[in-house]
Amino acid sequence: MPGFFGIGQRGIRMAGTVMTGRVPAGVSEGRVPGEVRARIIVADVGGTYARLGWTDGRDADQVHDYRRYACADYPDLASILRDYAAGGTCQGAVIAIAGVLEGDRLINSNLPWAVSVEQTRQGAGLSWVQLINDFEAVANAMPMLAHDTLSPLTHVTESGANSPALVIGPGTGLGAALWMEGHPPRVLATEVGQASLAAGNALEMDVVRRLLRERGHLNNEHVLSGTGLMNLYRCLCELRGGTPVHADAGALVAAAESGDGLALETLQVFCGWLGSLVGDLAIIFGAKVVYLAGGVTAHIPTFLHDGHFLQRYLNKGVMTERLEQVPVWRVEHGQLGLLGAAAWYQQHRA
């Protein structure tokens, strides 16, 4: 069993209508019986979708009435919260969202609208709204996962310590946080996605040169994210004398699985580059265990496990021996943000 895992996953309940898409695996149906308590909305808001549920603060690993909203279909975050709260007694909201708060406003490059904390609270009709970093929430969810939601990416699966634990993942952007045990546990949120992208071989240097033609600052998200994957594909097409034919990441992954040469190379380079960054961060933070989450990783498990990630993760010179003792786990759970927001509420406001 890896680290602090082994707590049985009690999961997310659903009642009502899922706004778009399918209900996540493991979600049970039916409303929760018993006394009525004030409901707190918990939300995981990304560049594409906002996922919402509610908790009453009694059990951080119980989130009810899951719904998913397409962000582009709503004029602002308040409209999504207001729609979710309609007909219920919702007191406040804990929102896991990518970005950094500067006073009342969120700095984020991936959302379809600007976010003000106070305007969101007023527009949603709630007593209070708390924004937390999305990967701060993901890290808070780690202790609640069951072992069967984890797949090893390294040969070593045991660690002598549970903490610090690095949690990282590519989605619309790239997020990362550090979980440190304590009472309560502490989480260090980061903006790894905005840090400069580092090349580790001649091909990656060629990609960096081409991407720098289009921008003054090249960050990790420009390659190591869902949109970054397509940037990488276009660069490799240019380098190989090919023509881009796949319009989005889903089509690219499907093509790679079918044997398309350029698509396959793109996924291999992506996974290797991600492995290199994860290794760097594990060294920087002194991580004892790593958890790889994020929306992209759920769609490319075959490529993450084919050896390119591991080879670059371990290719750290004198630190290779150290990293050989740091397990990396791919997390197979789609609702970490909701669970983490509920855990944050229980720790800080319940």
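(ticket continues) Second input and output from the same batch:
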Amino acid sequence: MLDELREMSQREEADSRIDVSFLHRSYCIAGLPTREPKVPTAVYAKSDGRFALTVHPTTISLPSGNLCDVGVPWGAKARLLILWASSEINEHGRTPGDPWLEIGAINEFLDKVGIPKGGKSVAATKEQLIRLAFSSFTMILKDEDDKSLFTNNRLFTAGAFHDEDLEHYREGNHNSVRWPLALKLSPEALRQFTSNAIPIPAERLGMVSNNPTAIDLLVYLCYRLPMLGPNSTELVNWRALNTQFGSQQTIAKFREAFAPAIRAVRAAYPEASFDTTPEGLVLRYSDPAVLRRAYIAVSKPGKERKRRKVRNRYDSTGTAKPSEQIEQKKEQIVMDI
């Protein structure tokens, strides 16, 4: 099922209605904070008994000599940005193995998931992108032989910001921060996003884009439901759900807080078959043909869905265009550092 849905995005050239975004599985297992941590520079950790995620903030020195504290990413916008990065890497027609993300392509995605292009919402999104750019992630998985396997990752390893934008960020002047020119995915993030991604219906994502817990649940269902066989069900009890989606609260409080996310996802993704019971969330086999309906994008009335153009990096002689020569030089400078 996962392979079938992934192949759908590769057929976008034949059917422009197909609308698929991707997210790596590890981000479906333990999510980022749903709210801003009380201590912005504190380490964030979450585990479910088998998998643990630790998100590390950092302090960087700017060329001015000023120290800049960068907290952990949190909330709906951080989740959407990770999804954007993973989706861009899987964009049809993209040069395989190219780790650089051109931020100019982000506006179409933000529009699709309901984030306005101006005002405080975009400033807050840029803040989360800076947090993602400088944070690091430690993932630990306990295997069947009781060995603990760990990996230390970063989402991005290099990038280019406009002059003074990091100073604006340090001062809390987020409205003056512009989008970065480009960001380079880490080799591990590139590998994970391209080889082990989960398809997610982007149009439906836009219906829950203001609710981080609903985003987590939607992603979780996109991961779990295709794994169920015909006539199969799976019970995920409230304790496990609290570990997965909660914040160390009592089961009763978690169920009350989790209810709006369930309602939002049920409305956004009616093709997903699941029920709530006193024991927990019952996942049911969902017909692949029915699930695929969620991946067909419906254009808004009076508004055509534009096809993304894949940028041609070279002229007819095979020589890199001037803008690409600049990008190549920028990358070489980063490598030299």
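Agent notes: DSSP finds 13 helices and 14 strands in the chain. The longest strand covers residues 136-142. Closing as not reproducible unless the customer responds.
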